[in-house]
Amino acid sequence: MPDRLRTPLGLSAAALLTLVLATVLLAPVLWGDRADAVDTANILRGPSSAHWAGTDGLGRDIFFRVLVASRLSVLLALLSTGLGVLTGLLLGAAPLLVGARLGKLVTAAVNIAVAFPGLLLALSFAVVFGVGATGAVLAIGFAIAPAFARLTRTLVASIAERDYIAAARIAGVGRFRILVRHVLPNIGEPLVVNATVAAGGSLLAFAGLSYLGLGVQAPSYDWGRLLGEGLASLYVHPLATLAPGAAVVLAGLAFNLTGEAIVRGIGQTTPLFAAARRRPEPRPAAPIPSAEDVVLAVEGLRVSFPAAGGRHVTPVRGLSFTVRRGEAVGVVGESGSGKTLTALAIAQLIEAPGQVHAERLEFAGQDLRQGPTRAQRRVLGTSLAMVFQDPMTSFNPIQRIGRQLAEVAEQHQGMSRRRAWERAVDRLRAVRLPAPERRAHQFPHEFSGGMRQRAMIGMGLMGTPVLIVADEPTTALDVTVQRQVLALLEDIRATTAAALMLISHDITVVGQVCRRVLVMYAGRVVEDVATADLATKARHPYTRALLAAVPHLRTDRDLPLTVIPGRPADPADAPAGCAFAPRCPYADDLCRREDPPLEEDLAGGRVACWHADLTAAPPAEPARAGEPVE
Amino acid sequence: MNPLNELSFRDVSVRFGGRRRGVTAVDRVDLTVPAGTVVGLVGESGSGKSTLARAAVGLAPLAGGAVLLDGRPLPRTPGRDEGRRVQMVFQDPYSSLDPRMTVGASIAEAAPRGDSATARRAEVSRLLDLVELTPERAGQYPAQLSGGQRQRVALARALAARPDVIIADEITSALDVSIQGTVLNLVRDLQRRLSLSMLFISHNLAVVRYVSDLLAVMYLGRIVECGPVDDVLGDPQHPYTRQLLASAPQPGGIPAALTGAEAALDTAEPADPHHPPAGCRFHPRCPVGPLVLEGRDACRDTEPDGAGRRHEAACHYAVRSSAPTAPHNTRSTP
User: What is the chain A residue with the closest CA to B134?
Assistant: First the structure.
């Protein structure tokens, strides 16, 4: 049993299921004769040491009859579940198998069938198929099928549009093969879970049908039939009814708990940890005096998360930088470099179990290291503007854009509803949204991507921001719209003197707007360089490689592109030395042993490289792409 | 002229949805991918470039026109017969490989059937080697690979069907910049070695320029300009091409300020494909169109045709070509 199922729930489910299955297998063999032994001397007796649950109208032992009946009861329940699941699977996968047009008809029929209550369906099927065990199996099976078909249909639809299905179709893989090889393995888990739960349900339904006389017929007997037989003497001899009832409950519980345990096991893909408590920070001896015009001062910023095995992953490892009033600073790095976490840490948006440590984290003169107080929250709310990559997910989809902007002013500036709305419209005008009065009444989905990003920037302008943090604000936009949004950010920075921190994976985008670029690699700043010097004076091998690797409109098409060998650093696996060393053509033993500090150079930039002076000359052997290194 | 491995779109339209509320994602597109060349296709999101790609492999239904391979129409069921000669590589390597299948099984599945198990294994090794991966990768699952490696596997799977034409739909846009270069180099190298015809789709002009021989620009379901890549980028005729070119970030930190005419149209949003504008589809955003210059009313009510203009630019004010239309886009008379 995998670890994930080793919970109290999983263990009791397993124990119960084992008990039920063992009874199913062994009871008829061990006690079949005793259950059928007629004893006319002891008819309708109460419980005794010889007959634990008493005897029935022919003097047969009810306890053993209940045990023996488990085989037929469970078998029939499983049969009908199997029938229902198979029918449901075929119906649900019909659109995939027979094509869209016919599939639509099947789906419509299934949708109608789902509307009928299962037991009612089973009852009417039972009449159609005739009274008896076979009829009941068919009845319950077909009653389960619609719900299962519906589930299958939904699951299939969720992955039928995946590219790997499309790729298989283009490669000429047949429909049935696609269903078996690509679709079913990827939707199997929820189906198995639901089938288990359905088995519990059909057990109950079968008992119900047999009890009503529509199921198993004498001389065969299952729990439902025992229930029916015992009911006549309920008041004299209650155990004759209660014993089969308890058996139904127990077996049903075994199936349902197993299903439940599997659900939990699947759902819990990432192990939970006790939320790490925020450790009190050591107070610095004396506050470091900050220059007048520094908006944001960060020293030794670390962001870490607990990981499997009690370790900690630290995607941001000791970051230091300052942003001055009205300055535009770019942050460039690949996925996993920690650039987004840095932005979130500044905005105090890292939630437990994530932990933020810093020797210094000051925004607009406020020390943010102790977690925001009420006053600081207010400062953050009005002075810090955040713009995210996907504005569709940053807006509430069911609230009007104007309302969402106005809320900021109501919350942080205590404006009245009316004045806040007017300010919202004014701000939308400031970000050059056409027809702001009308647009403010619209919902986020009525905006195009570029307009939503403008509105997001407008939201940041509801206060009087001194810093705008824009995390990949144009990555989801088209190049023409990207240019408009960048121009807008630049315009706002110039007119309001707010500082801009522009985070991007694209060094050329950052170069459009920013004066200074921080290049991040594996959670550290490896270079801090003026944009104007990027092309000529960048000193870190990573910065230079990044510049060379991005094709631009003047790249020589006859030469292969310069590549950076190896794969981007993994935050979970930070090496002892320089994180870029495995990919660096200049790396030597020193690089692999010790992480170079970020040191200021004469030109006013900063670089973290032991060989920053060497990089002006090309490395002896240019790096070549290939499997061994990636 | 030998038309071997030439993929062409003839008057292709693709519609989604009903008659009244439907969208014409691709509208009467003519485009030819000549044998052994790479045609780059650029355009913004919603311009229909991915739909055109999906139409080529039968994943999108045609509302009109035909997709031809060597002059013969391709079957409309994906992967059937001749259709296998056109294969596609998708944008997102995380969703284009079945997470429950090993790399080897994914590739082998696309290989022509009928080979023995040993032959298939050898073929998988050969393909992995072709995309610069070691044969041991065959036993691994996609989750064990990086994004760049997955895209190589996706490429190997496409090649397994022994295609003559490859459709590459934004294959590097989900990759990190440091990885993008290795995949682009590989694609270019393979295309030349196997002399594949290729339709290379990207929103990134610089990437398209690096890989392609010819360049087609798409706007709102129509091709607005098409020609040899250096000609089109060196002397763009359609104002939309010019705008794309101006918007592409340049190294060296040129400020993102907008020019006068552009600033006037700054807030103009991409047109809604559900309601394409009458006349020239680009006119509400055009810096040399009726909203900026007087007397250009033709743009509002007549749809321009690229015939007879340089790079077949579909603009009323594009320069007329003196030379006869470039051979790569000659329409064969039926």
Answer: A627
A450 contacts on B by Cβ (under 8 Å): 269-270
Q: Give per-residue pLDDT as tens, A132-177.
A: 888 889 888 988 899 999 999 999 988 888 889 888 888 888 888 8
CA distance A518 to chain B (A): 15
Residue B290 contacts A, CB cutoff 8 Å = no
State pTM to two decimals.
0.81
Is some CB atom of chain A closer than 8 A to the CB atom of B269? yes
A496, two tokens: 């309001």
Return d(Cα A512, Cα B136) in angstroms, integer.
44
With a threshold of 0.85, tell me whether the complex ipTM lies above it. Answer: no
Q: What is d(CA B43, CA A480) in angstroms, rounded to the nearest whole number?
A: 10
CATH class assigned to A294-514: alpha beta
Cβ pair B298, B315 in contact under 8 A: no
CATH-assigned architecture of domain A3-35+53-266 = Orthogonal Bundle (1.10)
Q: Are A137 and A80 in contact (CB under 8 A)?
A: yes
Q: How confident is the model at residue B223 (pLDDT cuts 50, 70, 90)?
A: very high
Q: How many CA atoms lie within 13 A of A56 on its CB side?
A: 26
Nearest to A434 among B80, B157, B267 (CB): B267
Nearest CA in chain B to A450: B269
Mutate to test the interface with A, among B98, B113, B213, B229 (most CBs of A within 10 A): B98
Å from A93 to nearest chain B CA?
18
Q: Which residues of A touch B161 (CB under 8 A)?
A: 170-172
- Do B253 and A551 make contact, defined as CB atoms within 8 angstroms? no
A442 CB burial (10 A radius; 0-12, 13-18, 19+): middle
Query: CB count, 10 Å around CB of B167?
Result: 29
A520 in B contact zone (CB under 8 Å): no
Across the beta sheet with B214-219, the strand order is B86-89, B165-169, B197-201, B38-42, B214-219, B222-228
Residue A173 identity (one-letter amino acid)? V
Task: Express each pLDDT in A566-604 by its tens digit.
Answer: 777 777 777 788 888 888 888 888 888 888 888 887 777
DSSP-assigned beta bridge partners for residue A572: none
**Secondary element (H or E) of residue A535:** helix A534-537
- Give residue B116's identity as a one-letter amino acid code: S
Q: Which of residues 99-128 of B touch A (CB under 8 A)?
A: 99-101, 106, 109-110
Q: Which helix (H) or strand (E) holds B151?
A: helix B147-160
Alpha-carbon span A504 to A471, nearest angstrom: 7
Q: How far apart are CA B262 and CA B288, in angstroms?
A: 10
- Residue B30 · residue B5 · CB < 8 Å: no
Contact B203, B45 (CB under 8 A): yes
- Nearest one of B10, B14, B13 to B67, comparing CA atoms: B10
Domain spans in chain A, listed from the N-terminal domain onward: 3-35+53-266, 294-514, 536-630
Give the count of beta carbons closer than 10 Å to the beta carbon of residue A11: 13
Nearest CA of chain A to the CA of B132: how many Å?
5
Does B303 contact A at CB distance below 8 Å?
A: no
pLDDT tens digits along A543-562: 988 888 888 888 888 888 88
DSSP secondary structure, B218-243, as one string: EETTEEEEEEEHHHHHHS--SHHHHH
| Phi, psi dihedrals of residue A529, rounded to the nearest 5° | -140, 150
Tell me whether B295 touches chain A (CB under 8 Å): no
Tokens of B243: 């705008």
* Residue A35 structure tokens: 């259950």
What is the full DSSP assignment across B250-288? PTTT---PPPHHHHHTTTPPPPPTTSPPSSSTTGGG-TT
